[in-house]
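Fold these two proteins, one after the other.
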Amino acid sequence: MRKALFVGVCLAALALAAWGEEKVTITVAVYPDLDSVIEGVLPAFQALYPDIEVELEVAGYVDHHTRLLTTLAAGMGVPDMAAVEIGYIARFAAEGGLVDLSQPPYNAEAYASLFVPYAWQQAHTVDGRLIAMPADIAPATMFWRRDVFAERGVSIDEIKTWEDYIEVGRRLTYDADGDGQIDHWLVDDAATVAMILWGGHTRFFDQEGNCIVDSPRFVRAFEVAKAIREAGLDARIPAWTNEWYEAFRRGTVATAINGAWLMGHLQNWIAPETAGLWGAAQLPGGIYTQRGGTWYVIPQASDNKDAAWKLVKFLTTNPDIQLRAFEITNAFPAVQAVWEDPIFEEPVPFLGGQPARLLWKEAVQHIVGVPTNPNDAIAMEIVSDALTQVLEEGRPIAEALAEAKRLIERRTGL
């Protein structure tokens, strides 16, 4: 049925296409996996707009964002549109150089009701500009290894609170081969757990712009991470490294707390051989938050803004296209109407037949967002340093967060 709908989009587009206009080629800068999405829906787009050619520029996650920041600052060599991950939204908001999509001829505020509210808020700056359109969002979830839990006699139902998580972690972290060295851990990195608990990249300031990094939410995030580290339960493995991939393949980490998108990476290229060995659960303690997400932007220096806007709108506001993107990468769609598709109730073979998308559908409806603050990137850097001091040097949490707040207020002029 879904394939028939997608073909229908293509056929309807062909019937509506306007012919005879001059060809335009737009450059679209993305990071890996998004190229698969765009290539997957490109036939439908080009049926609708046969006079727009799309040229993809694909680079690794960090290289992509660094290059985009550099070209925007220079005002030349920019793509016509680009993907931006949530971790970089604040940097782009601060640097400028992006089209305000709330203004004519885009008038994108008309689409506000389509999107999950927190993602729509994050697309805005505190001064009211709409600098991006949400494509996918990333409810945080806890992936867990069914085989490892079973081997250690642990049930996922035992984990209700973060204290439960740590206590269960003592049974899941062990010396597997008897050589006196721990080689199976509860989780990859305590720092990642902390960042998810405090709310990711965009919750360092309240709606009025006041710095809130010494609030109970940050204190709790630091406390949980510190308890995990002091108990020796995290492998201290950096994300996106060969060691990280191998840990998932071998099951040397029993849980992975990350965005729902991680399943797509595990399934498609990191550890496809582990199909059926994973499960998914909500975060302990009734926490609902995000980890990741993609937005599309149009640089002011683009020579083809009109054509770029057509593609941005096609990728972000069309429910059938959003559904197709979800099928390709498991990146959770930002358009709420898509969540009503039967696919969200279907068992997920990679997760042992669990209908896990229902968990993520529930989670996104609880997530609270705030507008992107241009100072978020500065705050992220300072708070991350404070966390390192707590985890690596034993600095008291209250002291580290108080100093972080002072530094943020000094550097931002608050």
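Now the second one:
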Amino acid sequence: MSHFTCYLFRSISLGIAILATTVPVLAKEVNPTINLNPNIRSIVSSKPGLDIGLQPIIAQDIPLKPSSQPVASTPAPTNQKQPLGLGVSTGIGTLGIGVNVAKSLTPQVNGRLGFNFGKLDLNRTDSGISYDSQLNLSSVQLLGDYYPFSSSGFRVTGGLVAQNNTFSVTGKPSNGSYTINNTQYPASAVGSLTGEYKYANSIAPYVGIGIGKSTSDGFGFNADLGVMFTGSPKVSLNASNPTFNNNPITRNQLDNQVRQTESDLKGFNVYPVISVGLSYGF
């Protein structure tokens, strides 16, 4: 065997011996302990053999498979009370005792339907004649309430009132006589002097302001302040004695008294409306 061949075999044997002693040490240094997140799987691949120290450690992160179950959502309340936007109210005022039903049309507008009734005894003197009078109140109203401020119960109101408010009057003689059209007549000749004052406009426009929203849930307070444009009262006057009532001369005196009273009441062409009450909304 030549020297070259012997040298070649010795070199190979020496290389094998060096690899046998160094590869385990390199493998220990290159492959440290790997702490993995419990949600991640690590796959480490390596090749066995003499070149183990030359292979990198490959860590592959595999995300967990998302759950196929749907995420539970909070169920919507099923028994929550929904307001109906309805309200009823009752009150007392210059139109008598009133009852109203209201419906919310928009957040700022209510429609209101109501009726009023009542009687009130008064003493009055018109054109020189004193009367025992009774105010008979009867009306139906259709109104709209506008609330300009959402956080307030203040309202502006407008609408129509179908009214039949009348004064029934009975004359009271003074010292046993009546003064009719500036002329004195014995009460015995006249009998009972009765009459009626009735406002000219049976359908009266109404404008006003108020507080309270009867369609709000629960109990509430309400008040109104406004005017009806009723027109001036129309007056009728009659004597219970037919002779006095139908005689052309005395009848003319009664008619002149009527015209005088209507003239005196001409400025009373609006009717004041004031009322206070309670309401309940649904």
